[in-house]
Amino acid sequence: MINQIKSNIWQLCFHSFGSCVYVLKINNKIILIDASSKTAQKELLNDLNKLKINPKKVNVIILTHNHYDHIENIHLFTNAKIYSPENLNESSNIKEIPELKIISAPGHSQESKCYLYKNILFSGDVLFHNGIGRTDLPGSSELQMKKSLKKLQKINYDILCPGHV
Ligand SMILES: [Zn+2]
């Protein structure tokens, strides 16, 4: 299912299990935030097809964290540069989209990142519309999650784009 968020940003959500995928067309690049799980592969490809996006033309994939339901389809995007969350920090620069602000938000997982683009917060599995991500998984930390949520409270955004809806 495709939801248009802005003229150049789309949210893809799936009936099958798997994270949402966000498609951004910015600076003449096609950028995905997260890639969802294998179970959602068919729906992902269908949605991209509807948006007239060839997977080979995707330039960049930025991951919120490394859980399988967010990363399993990265192999479909053979020409994409992958930005792995464990290699990013708040002063990293994603050169294809330098205006993207990186927010370290450990808690759900050690490497969790949120991304702020203008007034849109891509929150991965840290913050959902009606709750927060699990902190009972290996690599989770309830204490870190509390700190990360406090950090997010101080950020000005109008639109929340979480990893699951
Ligand atoms: Zn997760």
Describe the structure.
- This protein has 165 residues and is of the alpha/beta class.
- It has a single domain (2-162), classed as 4-Layer Sandwich (Metallo-beta-lactamase, Chain A).
- It has three helices and twelve strands, in the order ββββαβαββββββαβ.
- Strand 3 (21-26) and strand 4 form a beta hairpin.
- Zinc ion (ZN) is lined by residues 65, 67, 108, 125.
In short:
The protein is of the alpha/beta class.
Number of helices: 3
Task: Assess the beta-strand content as a share of residues.
Answer: 25-35%
- Total E-strand runs: 12
Q: What's the end-to-end separation, in Å?
A: 12 Å
Helix content: 10-25%
What is the CATH topology assignment? Metallo-beta-lactamase, Chain A
CATH superfamily: Ribonuclease Z/Hydroxyacylglutathione hydrolase-like
Present as ligands are:
zinc ion
Tell me the name of the CATH class: Alpha Beta
Lateral strand order in the biggest sheet: 1-2-3-4-5-6
Q: What's the CATH architecture name? A: 4-Layer Sandwich
Tally of discrete structural domains: 1
Largest sheet: 6 strands, mixed
Mean pLDDT: 97
Q: In one word, what is the shape?
A: globular
Low-confidence residue ranges: none
